[in-house]
């Protein structure tokens, strides 16, 4: 929903102040976000409406919006406008966990839609890395707050085909691997990139053309080193971030020191 400037009281700017007008305007809008007048996911008034309401130029409005965007308070969507940023999710890469588990650990219970369950599509999929014998392909869309959040493409061993669509619909990928296949996950290789999605994925996520997404590639291996799943997770980036802690030289040196009996 778009919020018209007439829907909330706004304090006039002070042209004689030493503080630039765009900083004042950015501060006014930030206050409306902070006090809940502008809520997460809500569209800001248009540039023309803000220009009229505050008596400033288009350049001033754009500078104010850019200031809020740099601090993560708003996000611009090409062809749609500027929106108050939603609460983000931080995925901790220090812990081996499934995508659903990463969301649930932060109090988010996503709605999931199973878009595809095929026992053999992985055999012909050119996007599956070479050397992986994972013919079963699942495609799921995750929805948070009534909006598409991510799209997951998962590849699994042939035995998973016997589960059937209804059973697969109820289980996470790691649940399938660990509880149905009975495999202990020993490690996972993860790579993250930013790129434009395919036309199909952009449509499924409701994204305009030329919008980039985060793509996380993950291949998990059993305790014996056998690949047991591969995933591509296409994530709308303005609501997701990754966290990774790395040891410094001092911590590594301490770990290498011999222990005394």
From TrEMBL:
GO biological process, one term: negative regulation of DNA-templated transcription
Keywords: DNA-binding, Transcription, Transcription regulation
A Pfam family it matches: UTRA
Domain of life per record: Bacteria
Domain HTH gntR-type: 19-87
GO MF annotation list: DNA binding; DNA-binding transcription factor activity
PANTHER family linked to this entry: MANNOSYL-D-GLYCERATE TRANSPORT/METABOLISM SYSTEM REPRESSOR MNGR-RELATED (PTHR44846), MANNOSYL-D-GLYCERATE TRANSPORT_METABOLISM SYSTEM REPRESSOR MNGR-RELATED (PTHR44846:SF1)
Protein name: GntR family transcriptional regulator
